[in-house]
Design brief:
By secondary structure, this protein is mostly helical. About 65% of the residues lie in helices and about 0% in strands. Helix 5 runs antiparallel to helix 6.
């Protein structure tokens, strides 16, 4: 074996030389961020504009949905809490999804928005989709897992967070 010369065929995915792999790596979370942002904005607006959903009872209402899943949820007490004011709970979920979606799409307070998305997905998984059998039929668990990379990484590119961070760095450099 010759010293200083690589003889293996392994090529690391992240080489740090500015090549296409670096570019792809930097933008890897962007499609996920756009998908989750648009989806949560749509979900929030869909709830807010559905006259049947924002009712205590009736076909398609939040109240009937929560009563239907109460006994099959992982945490019935959480469902009971929502049933104290189903319409208020429906609005909280809808506005929460809207805020999470906008924050994620714009990359504004992106980690906090992603944490909000993860918590909404967790609560929906433990209540509404808990009884899905097999478990992978319940979409809320998939959404929960999809939020985790954004909780960890935030929105480092093409985001308001990145623009604000760059502006703070520039101001700090101007004061030196």
């Amino acid at each position: 074996m010759t010293h200083g010369m690589r003889t293996d065929t392994y090529t690391p995915h992240y080489r740090g030389d500015g090549g296409w792999r670096d570019t792809v790596g930097r933008y890897a979370l962007l499609p996920l961020r756009v998908f989750l942002g648009v989806t949560f904005i749509y979900a929030g607006l869909d709830k807010l504009t559905d006259s049947a959903f924002m009712k205590e009872a009736g076909p398609g209402s939040i109240g009937d949905m929560m009563r239907a899943v109460r006994d099959s949820s992982a945490i019935p007490a959480l469902v009971d809490l929502s049933l104290k004011n189903p319409v208020g709970f429906g609005y909280a979920i809808a506005f929460g999804e809207l805020a999470v979606g906008i924050g994620t799409l714009l990359g504004l307070l992106a980690r906090l928005a992603a944490l909000g998305g993860a918590l909404i997905s967790l609560s929906l998984w433990l209540t509404v989709s808990w009884a899905s059998d097999p478990y992978y039929y319940g979409n809320d668990l998939v959404y929960l897992m999809a939020w985790i990379p954004l909780v960890l990484a935030g929105a480092p590119l093409l985001s308001l967070d990145a623009a604000l961070r760059s502006r703070r760095r520039q101001r700090a450099a101007d004061f030196r």
